[in-house]
Design brief:
The protein has 635 residues and is an alpha/beta fold. It folds into 6 domains: 42 residues, no CATH class; 90 residues, DNA polymerase, domain 1, CATH 1.10.150; 68 residues, DNA polymerase, domain 1; 90 residues, Beta Polymerase, domain 2; 81 residues, DNA polymerase, thumb domain (Beta Polymerase, domain 3, 2-Layer Sandwich); 236 residues, TIM Barrel (Alpha-Beta Barrel), CATH 3.20.20. Helix content is 40%, strand content 13%. The radius of gyration is 27 Å and the shape is globular. The termini are far apart. The N terminus is likely disordered. Bound molecules: 2'-deoxyguanosine-5'-triphosphate, calcium ion (CA) (2 copies) and zinc ion (ZN).
Length: 635
């Protein structure tokens, strides 16, 4: 028997009484929307039997990781833990779907990096949706202990110690234990560790409450697909911080237009990732997905779509200004529309509805431009509007090159040629190969000799290019703990593009870190500083660096600063980017790709740059290669 994937997932509710497949995969959006295929004809997404649930690799990897974490609390053997963690990493990277492979009868053990125990767990997960071992562990150990692992400086060993010895089960209890001084008394902890843990709790709490924009974007994509099959929906948009492109998102605010709100809410309720409904009213509904992430839905009439989109896009602070502007003009604004006050249209409330259908119309009625969502933070947008000087924000299409990436020479997954051809496919005109320097032993960093050889190789590849594509000879050179560069100047001087990075000694005092970075900037062989503050969103604070000093040095020496587009970094962050731009420092938006797909992170960097108000002119890798080389004095 052949089933389409939706039938396998959702059972009979997708089969009509006459046997036609009503899965969304065959929905074509016209007529009644379905292709009138019988279940057996529905070959859109073949499954040959019913043995597996469609569980995606990412989910499988996540569960395996959690299993390893939980096992850690029981003191399980390290070898087993490593097997699960390595397996999880492999599965995440695998191009084929694990559940598909199981369906085809592929022996998972044949895949590199997947052993017998991991393979068994995959099969159990795909067949039953859960792991018996995990359920058993969760009877002994509360799931909230996993949150303890989100505290920086709190490895699994330390987390297990506070759990076993102090009975700490969650972040609130950890905070109380630190404040009471109980943690510092455990062996292997001290006052300093206790203080560091206490400071790190805030990050772990935030990580529970907000997800990365990139993670929100995945949910949005899935929700859009789901909602696209609802015939009751007219327009659909996601407002809130997601639409503003904020680096982390607290919840999603979905807006739909319809004359059939219950129909839209019913359809939303059938979204497969919903774990519970928080509230459901006449036109409003809130649900939780896995990991407690909240999604709000509001159904509005077509005439109010623009007003609602404006209102729910926010930010709150931006809307305060918008309302103030309305008031000045004798108008009133809310999520339903813009109203003239005191001019009653006869319905008795003394107000006349004057705008609301589109966002542009709402802003226009208030004498304001339709601000790009990324600018709506009540920073400078109203001043810019008043001066008719809104920046024309950079777009992905403006990007010509990517100047930070790794290959198999260090910790990347692809060769120079593979990275170059992936860059060409994405329309880029140049790249810089910037593998790690030798200090980063974990990543097989290159010494001077290996670098010089790699650069010869790049010269040879460039010599064969017939389309003008250029590969710059580069390196991501560590700024050592003592401030020296990891690679000698007589090697660096042969490079086209030298990135300086802090990877070690991130806990040094402010002056020391600042001196290291400023010192690197002053080195004539250095072109750019990568991820200048070292933060990892929801994971690690920025190091303590005096950015004013960094900006002044960059400006004085004509050096560039990076906006690292990796969605967990987004470093520099928006307000610092804006400050760097005011100093006239060229920004370089780089993906720091470790494999071809890494190039696709560029869009996250672009969002962040837009939030900072950056234009094409502010970003160095929008230039042609000739202009870029001129900018860095290598022409
Ligand atoms: P988030 O979810 O924490 O990442 O941030 P937002 O901006 O998405 O905030 P959220 O979800 O609470 O509300 C979405 C938008 O709705 C918000 O940006 C502005 C608007 N909004 C919500 N509540 C209020 C309010 O009490 N007053 C005003 N003026 N606007 C509000
Ligand atoms: Ca929100
Ligand atoms: Ca919300
Ligand atoms: Zn890098």
């Amino acid at each position: 028997m052949v089933f389409c994937a939706a039938i396998v997932d959702r059972e009979e509710k997708y089969v009509s009484r006459d046997g036609f497949c009503k899965c969304r995969i065959v929905y074509d959006g016209r007529g009644d929307g379905y292709l009138n295929r019988t279940v057996t004809e529905c070959t859109a997404n073949l499954r040959t039997d019913k043995t597996t649930l469609a569980m995606d690799n990412e989910k499988i990897a996540k569960v395996l990781g959690q299993l390893a974490d939980l096992l850690e609390f029981t003191g399980a053997n390290a070898f087993r833990l490593r097997a699960y963690r390595n397996g999880a990493r492999k599965i995440k990277e695998l191009p084929e779907s694990i559940s598909g492979l199981i369906d085809q009868g592929t022996d998972l053990v044949k895949l590199e990096g997947i052993g017998k125990s991991v393979a068994e767990k995959c099969i159990e997960l795909c067949q039953t949706g859960r792991l018996k071992q995990m359920d058993e562990l969760l009877e002994e150990i509360p799931a909230t202990v996993l949150d303890l692992l989100n505290v920086p400086k709190m490895g699994p060993k330390k987390a297990a110690a506070v759990f076993h010895e102090l009975g700490v089960e969650n972040l609130a209890q950890l905070k109380a234990a630190c404040e009471a001084g109980a943690v510092s008394k455990l062996s292997g902890f001290g006052k300093k560790t206790e203080q560091a843990i206490l400071e790190g709790i805030a990050i772990a709490v935030a990580a529970n409450e907000r997800i990365l924009w990139s993670a929100a974007d995945k949910i949005v994509t899935k929700l859009r697909q789901h909602m696209a099959t609802c015939k009751a929906v007219g327009q659909l948009e996601f407002a809130g911080s997601y639409r503003r492109g904020k680096e982390t998102v607290g919840d999603l605010d979905m807006l739909a237009t319809s004359t059939d709100a219950p129909g839209v809410m019913d359809h939303f309720a059938s979204f497969e990732d919903i774990t519970s409904t928080i509230v459901r009213g006449d036109t409003k509904m809130s649900v939780r997905l896995e990991d407690e992430f909240q999604v709000d839905l509001r159904v509005v009439p077509d005439d109010s779509f623009g007003a609602a989109l404006q209102y729910f896009t926010g930010s709150k602070e931006h809307n305060v200004q918008v309302r103030g502007k309305a008031k000045q003009m004798g108008l009133k604004i809310n999520e339903w529309g813009v109203y003239e006050v005191g001019s009653g249209d006869g319905d008795g409330d003394g107000e006349t509805w004057v705008a609301g259908k589109t966002e542009a119309e709402v802003y226009r009625r208030l004498g304001l431009p339709c601000f790009e969502p990324e600018l709506r933070e009540s920073r400078q947008e109203f001043d810019w509007a008043a001066a008719d000087a809104l920046p024309e924000l950079i777009t992905l299409d403006d990007i010509q090159g990517d100047l930070h990436m790794h290959t198999t020479a260090s910790d990347g997954r692809a060769s120079i040629e593979q990275m170059a051809s992936a860059a060409r496919e994405r329309g880029l005109k140049y790249i810089a190969i910037t593998d790690h320097s030798k200090r980063v032993t974990m990543a097989n960093g290159l010494d001077g000799e290996r670098l010089l050889n790699q650069w010869k190789e790049i010269d040879a590849i460039n010599a064969t290019a017939d389309d003008g594509f250029v590969i710059l000879k580069g390196v991501e050179c560590d700024i050592l703990e003592n401030g020296d560069m990891d690679i000698e100047d007589d090697v660096l001087q042969h490079a086209d593009w030298v990135i300086a990075s802090v990877h070690y000694g991130q806990n040094q005092p402010r002056q020391q870190i600042t001196d290291r970075i400023v010192g690197a900037i002053a080195n004539p062989n250095i072109t750019m500083v990568a991820h200048p503050t070292g933060r990892l969103l929801n994971k690690r604070e920025a190091y303590d660096v005096d950015l004013d000093a960094v900006f002044q040095a960059a400006n004085a020496h004509g050096k560039l600063l990076e906006l690292n587009a990796n969605p967990i970094r987004l470093d520099l962050k928006d307000v610092y980017l804006a400050a760097a731009q005011r100093h006239g420092i060229p920004i370089v938006i780089n993906t720091d790709a470790h494999k071809p797909a890494g190039f696709d992170d560029m869009r996250f960097g672009i969002k962040q740059a837009r939030r900072a108000g950056l234009t094409r002119a502010d970003v160095a890798n929008t230039k042609t290669i000739q202009q870029l080389l001129k900018l860095i004095g290598k022409d």
